[in-house]
Design goal:
With 248 residues, this protein is an alpha+beta fold. It has eight helices and ten strands. GO terms for molecular function: zinc ion binding.
Length: 248
């Protein structure tokens, strides 16, 4: 039976759409940014995967962000240094939460590659194609190359001799970004990370500063654990400490 896609308002067959698990609206698999394999997995009756449309996803993110703020409150109480505590203790207002969610959503389809050699070609189009080709070779997959939005692929900052600028690559779906980060193993000192918001970068910096201070004060049973590019201090049972080089 034909249904109407809630995003593009065009009719579609049942086998061409997926249904939001929260508001039950129907959406084209393509409009949802899912591949054919991903949409088939979501539609399986016994599947434990859940899909939320953009509007419902924002509601979920706001709820998660509020929980994250409460978690930060607890962590602030444990910080030893007043300066760090004062900065983290400035809690988000409702407007700031919405702005932060919007910023994270906007950056979710971005990936930043560090230390990737820059092209010697002087033309913008050719140098951009060189960057995209280098990236495809780096992840050993032409599949990801087809997901890149070429107009939104560029180097960050002004060009400086003998210095490699970070490369921002925009994809059609945030799912692609997460898949690449999960599968990529750093090689030749080339690293990748999500496009973090200013608040995420600030929190990451403060956590790393606290980590360094605690290590200098003799705490040997802690390490930095990175989740989606954001560090967190956790306890370890041995003296082996792993720190992500690009965030050191």
């Amino acid at each position: 039976m034909p249904v109407v896609c809630n995003k593009c308002n065009k009719s579609a067959n049942d086998n061409d759409v997926i249904v939001c698990d929260l508001c039950k609206s129907s959406i084209h698999s393509i409009c949802a940014g899912l591949s054919r394999q991903e949409s088939e997995c979501v539609r399986l009756k016994k599947s434990k995967l859940r899909y939320f449309c953009d509007k419902c996803n924002i509601v979920e993110i706001i709820g998660g962000l509020r929980a994250e703020v409460e978690k930060l409150r607890s962590e602030v109480a444990e910080l030893k240094y007043e300066k760090t505590g004062n900065v983290l203790n400035k809690l988000l207002s409702e407007e700031e939460i919405i702005s932060e969610v919007d910023d994270r959503q906007r950056r979710a389809t971005n990936l930043i590659v560090y230390n990737l050699p820059e092209s010697d070609d002087k033309t913008v189009i050719n140098s951009k194609q060189d960057d995209i080709s280098q990236f495809a070779a780096l992840v050993s997959s032409e599949e990801w190359k087809n997901e890149i939005v070429p107009d939104k692929c560029f180097r960050l900052g002004k060009k400086v001799e003998n210095k490699r600028r970070p490369l921002l690559i925009n994809f059609k779906s945030s799912t692609v970004v997460l898949s690449i980060l999960r599968n990529y193993k750093a090689a030749n000192n080339i690293y990748m990370n999500r496009d973090l918001t200013a608040r995420q970068r600030n929190i990451a910096y403060l956590v790393r500063e606290e980590f360094r201070s605690r290590k200098e004060n003799g705490e040997g049973n802690i390490k930095l654990k990175y989740t989606n590019g954001v560090p967190k201090i956790v306890n370890i049972v041995n003296s082996s400490i792993t720190v992500d080089p690009k965030n050191a």
